Amino acid sequence: xxxxxxxxxxxxxxxxxxxxxxxxxxxxxxxxxxxxxxxxxxxxxxxxxxxxxxxxxxxxxxxxxxxxxxxxxxxxxxxxxxxxxxxxxxxxxxxxxxxxxxxxxxxxxxxxxxxxxxxxxxxxxxxxxxxxxxxxxxxxxxxxxxxxxxxxxxxxxxxxxxxxxxxxxxxxxxxxxxxxxxxxxxxxxxxxxxxxxxxxxxxxxxxxxxxxxxxxxxxxxxxxxxxxxxxxxxxxxxxxxxxxxxxxxxxxxxxxxxxxxxxxxxxxxxxxxxxxxxxxxxxxxxxxxxxxx
Length: 293
Hints:
two-stranded antiparallel ribbon; single chain; about 55% strand
């Protein structure tokens, strides 16, 4: 059984690009809200608080299954992502991915991509709006959240996201997103994503130190199945993501794929002369205010 969604072949790359705004390994978007109610909504990319030269290296172990639930393929990929440049409009990231399949390693092919601070890439149009404030409850604690809407268009594809935001890390307490295909007479829903902060101010061991992390659960529903991802984020690490565990099921409820991401090394960019090499102890330069109820 094919696990590809029932959409035109030419759209699949753009659908993946739009979905990466929320659930991609290399790039994701968080929001920070200005205290002035009449100011425009400002969205804060997870690399924006770091300097050019900041980088991280992660390893993703991925396993795919046949329709009987037997593992049929295992791959290991190491990705080094570097912040190349940043200005008032957006930033550019360089990603180098080395993949190992069946004991054979494929050399990395560097790619550079520009992102705007609403998560859009070149050719995509982003609009933001403020929808007011709302009290939400997480783990028995209530928060005053600023509700924002982010609309990203890419040709006939349109993703609308509603975000419930606070000033403190991890900034987004809850996110609801829908991707529509507008090419037909009626809009067609291609995916629906919901993410929510599960826990915060958790300790995570790294290089004989403890990072402060937030745990976020994301559920992505598409015509061909569902993906559930548990992700750990730290404001001390470029790109925020330090670990994730993800499982994808097909429409019949069978496991299709699962993956684990682990942080191997990172540098905040304070010392631009340091290139991605081996592990090294480093000061944690980007401490963030803890989330308060």
